[in-house]
């Protein structure tokens, strides 16, 4: 492939990787990871509420990785409550999983930015080490994509398996019991999915630029070529 086309492909991949880093950073700082509704089970049972009457006992909840808000309704109107995961909810949530999600988000941002730098370096510079060539491009892209997948798996398990919304809804509730009425992943969670797909797309762009996967060797070649030979 001509060098000019490779530059264009690398510039596109670099721009996508940079957008991925910005998107992840923005997603981490929001509370739009999960949105749902919570039912005041105790209040509904006291008055034997059914049908439209249940609406008076259904509140709202939304949260992210650091903070969130819930609106409890027990027949007397909505009462909002702001909460923070650190340190408020640290004792009732699966802290190891939650911290791991935050750490993988950080790693994803870092490697997406590193990948952006290497894409631009390969587009406009002359690679002088292996990690500046195809191996480095595949490596940074693979790590970023893997982190995105781990974030989604861990956070989904925290919400669904460990019933995170229900634990938050019952935080500091003595006489009233709440249960999750409905919940769905919100925009910030899907941004992570898009970022993972972007990193996978970048790997395809590297292959499209004419680079074989770094760990596969050509059967016809009897000599080992370096990153400079692969690039130019």
TrEMBL record:
Main location: membrane
Protein's cellular compartments: Membrane
Presence of the UniProt keyword Kinase in the record: no
Signal peptide (residue range): none
Membrane topology label: Multi-pass membrane protein
GO terms classed as biological process: equilibrioception; sensory perception of sound
Protein's name in the database: CLRN1 protein
Source organism: Podilymbus podiceps (Pied-billed grebe)
């Amino acid at each position: 492939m001509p060098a000019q086309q490779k530059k264009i492909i690398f510039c596109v991949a670099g721009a996508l990787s940079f957008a991925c880093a910005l998107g992840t950073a923005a997603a981490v700082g929001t509370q739009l990871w999960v949105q749902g509704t919570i039912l005041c089970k105790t209040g509904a049972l006291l008055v034997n509420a059914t049908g439209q009457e249940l609406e008076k006992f259904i509140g709202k909840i939304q949260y992210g990785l650091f903070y969130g808000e819930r609106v409890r309704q027990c027949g007397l109107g909505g009462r909002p409550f702001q909460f923070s995961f650190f340190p408020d909810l640290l004792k009732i949530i699966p802290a190891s999983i939650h911290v791991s999600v935050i750490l993988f988000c950080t790693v994803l941002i870092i490697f997406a930015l590193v990948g952006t730098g290497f894409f631009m370096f390969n587009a406009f510079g002359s690679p002088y080490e292996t990690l500046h060539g195809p191996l480095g491009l595949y490596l940074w892209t693979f790590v970023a994509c893997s982190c995105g997948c781990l974030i989604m798996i861990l956070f989904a398990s925290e919400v669904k398996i460990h019933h995170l919304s229900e634990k938050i809804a019952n935080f500091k509730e003595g006489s009233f019991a709440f249960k999750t009425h409905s919940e769905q992943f919100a925009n910030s969670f899907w941004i992570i999915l898009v970022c993972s797909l972007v990193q996978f797309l970048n790997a395809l762009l590297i292959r499209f630029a004419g680079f074989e996967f770094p760990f596969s060797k050509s059967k016809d070649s009897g000599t080992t070529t370096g990153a400079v030979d692969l690039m130019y």
